[in-house]
Structure formats: structure tokens, C-alpha cells
Amino acid sequence: MNNKDSMVDEEADIRKMLNAYVANSPYKLNPDTKIVDRVVKGLVMRKSKYGHAYCPCRIVTGDFEKDKKTICPCIYHKEEIERDGECHCNLFVRGN
After folding, report:
1. Do 53 and 46 touch, CB atoms closer than 8 A?
2. What is the pTM of this model?
3. What separation in angstroms does the CA of 76 have from each of 39, 80, 89?
4. Nearest CA to 71 among 81, 86, 56, 61?
5. Angstrom distances, CA of residue 80 to CA of 4, 6, 10, 22, 92
6. How far is CA 16 from the centre of its chain?
7. 3-23 and 33-50 helices, crossing angle to 10°
8. pLDDT tens across 8-33, in order?
9. Local structure of 17: helix, strand or coil
10. What's CA 43's distance to the chain center, in Å?
11. Which of 84, 79, 42 is nearest to 59 (CA)?
């Protein structure tokens, strides 16, 4: 399998994970599909580069104990959605 195929597979896996997450949470994916596509591409790139789907809006330090908090969905998204109606990267928004 070439790199492009593995990126396509990785994107499908990440989208599946995101859809499963929102199906079982009070949140939903941003209705703006361009934003979702952009964030998903960032998650794919980070998973390819670092081995985990770290939030593309946060800095990866290289210290897994610190960085694991930013694996999507990161630990910060619930508080951000509660406060702002969306998470920092705009991937998740308040559900109805």
C-alpha cells in the first residue's frame, strides 16, 4: 500500500472515530464541512508524523505524558464547548 492509500485509510479511520464519538456524546461535528475536513486532514498528518491524532490546534511537545491530553478528542474540548459553544479548533460544537 502506498502512502496516499494509507493516508486515505487513516482519514476514514479518524472520521469513523469522530462519528462514533459524537454519536455517544452531547456534541456534534461542526456543520461546516470545510472546517471538519481541514481539522481531519490535520489529525491525519499528526497521526502520520507522531503516531497519534493530536489536536492540530495544540503544540506537540514530544513528551507523551503531556501530549496525550491533546489526542483527539482532547481533554479541553468539553470545557471549551461549554464556554464557547465550540472547541478551540471548531471541530466539535454544542449539540441541540
Report:
1. yes
2. 0.91
3. 16, 6, 11
4. 56
5. 34, 32, 26, 16, 10
6. 11
7. 120
8. 899 999 999 999 999 999 999 999 99
9. helix
10. 6
11. 42
